[in-house]
Q: What sequence folds into this?
C-alpha cells in the first residue's frame, strides 16, 4: 500500500487496498482441494474494510458464500445488489425470521423453537429457506449440543419449509490441537450418526482462518475465512506458506508541533513526563475514533500476567514498554501521555523533518475504528469491473 499516505487533503483517513483483499482470497483458494468451497466472512463491516466492497471482491475472486453475524448485514448486501448465499451466524430473535425469508438469507439453527418460528415465516411466504445447523462442541456459545440434536432431529425434519443445506461447528482454540481434535471428532461422530439415519447434509464446515491453515484434513466441504482475507495471520499461527498482502492503513496528519523541555508533563492527568528536550506532534485522532481502544483479555497464565504488569509499570514510570508507536516518514515515534478523545501527542524528537501536514501511520484495532473515519479505496476501478458471482448451492 505504500507509506505515502495520500489522503487527498484529509486530516485523517483509512486506506483500503481492494486488490490486496482479492490477492488474499486467491491465496486461500490455492490451499483448498477441488470441490472445497470458500465462505468469505464479512461480518463487522468486513472487519472494518467495508461490508459491501469486501463482499463484492471476495465473490468475484471465487468465494461462494458470505458469512455475517446479523440479519441486517445480510439486508445491506441484498440491497446493494449482492445475490449470492449469505449465512447469518447468530441465533435469531423472534420476529427476525421474516427478514431471513424476505431477503433470501440463510439462517443458523441453534434450537427447536427458532426452527419452528423460521418454518412458520417461510410457510406464510410460501417459500422454503435454507438453514445451517450449528453444533456446540466446546465453544460454549450457540448451537445444538450433539445430544440435543439427536433428540430433536425427527421433530426438525417435520418442517418441510427448511432446507438442510449445511451443518457446522466453531473451534474455540484452533492452536490447541488436542482440544480441536476433540471438537472435530465430536462433530464428525454426530454427522456420521445422521448419515447412518439417511440424513446427508451437503455442506459440512468447521474451519475458521486458523483451522484452515493448521488442519487441511478438516476442510470438509467448505471453510470459513475471515482474518486471513484481510492480510493477517490468526494469533498463534506462524509457520505457513501463505503469502498475504496488507489490506489497510490508518493515517492522520500532524496538525501542531510543540517544543517542550525535559520534565514537561503531557496530556490529561499529567501521567507522562518527557525525559529530554523534545518536540511533540499533535495528531487529530483519539479514542472517539477507536484509536487506542483495544480488548483487554484475561491473562492466559502467569507469564501473560507478568507481561501485563511489566508494561503497566513501565507506563507508570514513563518508559516505552508497551507504548503505542506511529510511523512518520518511515521512522518510528511513540505516542505519549493519555490518548485524548480527539487529539493525541507523539514524541517526534527523533524526526527533525516532522512538519505540519505530514502524515503519520497509526496502529489501530480494525474492528473498533469508527465508521466516521473517511475511507479511501485503492484498486476500486478494477473492483467495479468484477461482477459478483451468484452461486446456486445444492439443497
A:
Amino acid at each position: 500500500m505504500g507509506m505515502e499516505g495520500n489522503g487527498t487533503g484529509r486530516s485523517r483517513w483509512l486506506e483500503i487496498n481492494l486488490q490486496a483483499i482479492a490477492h488474499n482470497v486467491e491465496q486461500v483458494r490455492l490451499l483448498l482441494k477441488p470441490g472445497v468451497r470458500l465462505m468469505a466472512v464479512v461480518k463487522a463491516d468486513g472487519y472494518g474494510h467495508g461490508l459491501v466492497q469486501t463482499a463484492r471482491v471476495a465473490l468475484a475472486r471465487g468465494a461462494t458464500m458470505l458469512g455475517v453475524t446479523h440479519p441486517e448485514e445480510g439486508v445491506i448486501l441484498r440491497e446493494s445488489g449482492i445475490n449470492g448465499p449469505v449465512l447469518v451466524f447468530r441465533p435469531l430473535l423472534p420476529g427476525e425470521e421474516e427478514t431471513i425469508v424476505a431477503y433470501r438469507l440463510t439462517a443458523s439453527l441453534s434450537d427447536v423453537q427458532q426452527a419452528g418460528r423460521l418454518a412458520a415465516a417461510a410457510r406464510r411466504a410460501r417459500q422454503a429457506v435454507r438453514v445451517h445447523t450449528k453444533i456446540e462442541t466446546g465453544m460454549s456459545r450457540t448451537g445444538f449440543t450433539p445430544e440435543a440434536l439427536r433428540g430433536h432431529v425427527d421433530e426438525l425434519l417435520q418442517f418441510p419449509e427448511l432446507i438442510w443445506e449445511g451443518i457446522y461447528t466453531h473451534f474455540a482454540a484452533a492452536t490447541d490441537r488436542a482440544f480441536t481434535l476433540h471438537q472435530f471428532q465430536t462433530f464428525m461422530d454426530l454427522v456420521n450418526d445422521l448419515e447412518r439415519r439417511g440424513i446427508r447434509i451437503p455442506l459440512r464446515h468447521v474451519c475458521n482462518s486458523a483451522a484452515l491453515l493448521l488442519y487441511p484434513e478438516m476442510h470438509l466441504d467448505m471453510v470459513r475465512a475471515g482474518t486471513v482475507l484481510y492480510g493477517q495471520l490468526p494469533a498463534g499461527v506462524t509457520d505457513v506458506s501463505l503469502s498475504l498482502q496488507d489490506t489497510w492503513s490508518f493515517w492522520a496528519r500532524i496538525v501542531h508541533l510543540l517544543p517542550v523541555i525535559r520534565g514537561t508533563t503531557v496530556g490529561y492527568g499529567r501521567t507522562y513526563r518527557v525525559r529530554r528536550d523534545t518536540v511533540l506532534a499533535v495528531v487529530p485522532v483519539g479514542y472517539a475514533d477507536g484509536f487506542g481502544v483495544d480488548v483487554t483479555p484475561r491473562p492466559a497464565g502467569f507469564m501473560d500476567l507478568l507481561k501485563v504488569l511489566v508494561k503497566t509499570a513501565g507506563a507508570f514510570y514513563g518508559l516505552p514498554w508497551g507504548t503505542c508507536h506511529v510511523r512518520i516518514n518511515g521512522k518510528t515515534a511513540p505516542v505519549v501521555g493519555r490518548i485524548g478523545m480527539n487529539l493525541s501527542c507523539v514524541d517526534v524528537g527523533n524526526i527533525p523533518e516532522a512538519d505540519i501536514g505530514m502524515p503519520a501511520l497509526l496502529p489501530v484495532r480494525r474492528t473498533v475504528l469508527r465508521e466516521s473515519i473517511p475511507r479511501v479505496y485503492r484498486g476500486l476501478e478494477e473492483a467495479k469491473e468484477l461482477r459478483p458471482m451468484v452461486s446456486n448451492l445444492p439443497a
